[in-house]
Automatic annotation (TrEMBL):
This is Peptide ABC transporter substrate-binding protein. Keywords: Signal. Gene3D superfamilies: Dipeptide-binding Protein, Domain 1 (3.90.76.10), Dipeptide-binding Protein, Domain 3 (3.10.105.10), Periplasmic binding protein-like II (3.40.190.10). It comes from the Bacteria. The keyword Signal applies. Residues 88-470 form the Solute-binding protein family domain. Residues 1-18 form the signal peptide. It comes from Salinicoccus siamensis. Residues 27-50 are annotated as: Disordered.
Amino acid sequence: MKSFKALLLFLTLTLVLAACNFGGDDSGNGGGEDGSSSSEGSDGKTINLSIASDPPSFHPALATDTTSGAIMASVFEGLTRLDPEGNPEPAMAENIDVSEDEKTYTYTLRDAQWSNGDPVTAEDFEYAWKWALDPENASDYAYQLYYIEGAEAYNSGEGSADDVAVKAVDEKTLEVKLVNPTPYFDELTAFYTYYPINSKVAEENPDWHTDPNGENYIGNGPFNLESFTSSDEIVLQKNEDYWDSENVALQTVNIDMVESESTALKMYEGGDLDYLGSPFNSIDLNALDKFKDNGTLNVSDQAGTYMYVFNTQDEIMQNKNIREALTIAIDREGLINNVTKGEQEPATGLVPLTMEGFEEPEEYFEPGNMDDAKAALDAGLEELGMEDPSELSIALSYNTSEAHAAIAQFVQQGWKENLGIDVTLDNSEWQVYLEALDAGEHQVGRYGWLADFNDPVNFLEIFKTEEGNNNTGWTDEEYISLLDQASQETDEAARTEMLQEAESVFMEDFPIAPIYFYTNLSVHEDKVKNMTPDPLGNVQLKYVDIEE
């Protein structure tokens, strides 16, 4: 996130692949003379947030993480948008007509305009989706468009853009033909890979997205990107020309970059930040007990999985028994009770328990069973021609975060004490970390995936091919076949059974070590209203209000 590359990015504790934090420097972005936050001033209602680092991308088709996604959701808008409960509602599309066979969608666009005054047209959607699918543009999330006829063939180099069944019938009518009925397609069109791009600007200026401060950076969402200062801040201003601007309460959104969770906590407690939590920044783990005790911590289930991915192309990690031993030996209950403290659910599978058909946990292994872990380790050592665990040297990588570091240190200690394996820890800044994962420069890497839409396939399809967000290098023909069959199955019960079987094939080979299923954790000032993350971990700033 790509939730990704990752993605999630934030451990609110819900860090996904992701996982950046919204934050700034210690001085904050407050408006008062005493340095305190000012939510009401000459510029109207203001909210002060933070993220951990610069968004890796400002282009909807190139974004793969929750940090970039949180910015995109404010600056752009798709055919649909998720409401505060996470349900899709019409956005750029004023009307959506679905054919009887549920494979053809016809969208009638409302009167809306880009921030430079150009009208938003059906051509802008056709252009954007085909741009994402163009293999030359290397969009990691291009596969999210494979539901459209001809999309996969074009993206894989076996077809052409003309074969992609998305067509601007006229300026206000967009026709889309799907390969199979897709009941969650309205949710997909709310995702940032499906956002439009101002085709006229992009054709004239292909690098329009590389300078967020430039005149070519054009959006169509409830906010305009007023300014971006790398490693410092992002400022969003209400888009007065947005079609639904009368229902947008906030005038200004100040987003500081604050890498340290403890620093962000101090800023929050000092009044310089109004909110801590998904999808922006993480709450300092050391503060969770305090927020629980005073009743201000908001906790809810989130459709996301925190995991470690194994690089199955690595000399050591290609061994299934070693992967199995490392997976079993993680003390998930101890980690949750003593480190993350966010009421997460221990994970023994890939798909979160929030997903229909996966509500009951499948124990593909018995977590913490050291007899099983040591048996797998012994088998793996023998296959590798080693006699003792001390001969193994394993590197555990994660993106810079106090929370990720605390989790990694806990796991490192457990692997040493229970398996006798020496583990080195390696952390790097978010963008650098994503690039290393993509390049396969890891043995074991932190990974988080927060659902882009509410369906189990969103988790399973990550690992269907070696491309995109699959940082394991693992593939399996049976797994691919099951997902392909499920994509064509119209009987929901039969489809669910296929997806369950696919997860079983996946987990039996241990390309990942699932650790826990996310929860949404957040705290906010009393004046902040309508800012509770939805089940996917999203917060739509469009609906947020400030009441003094």
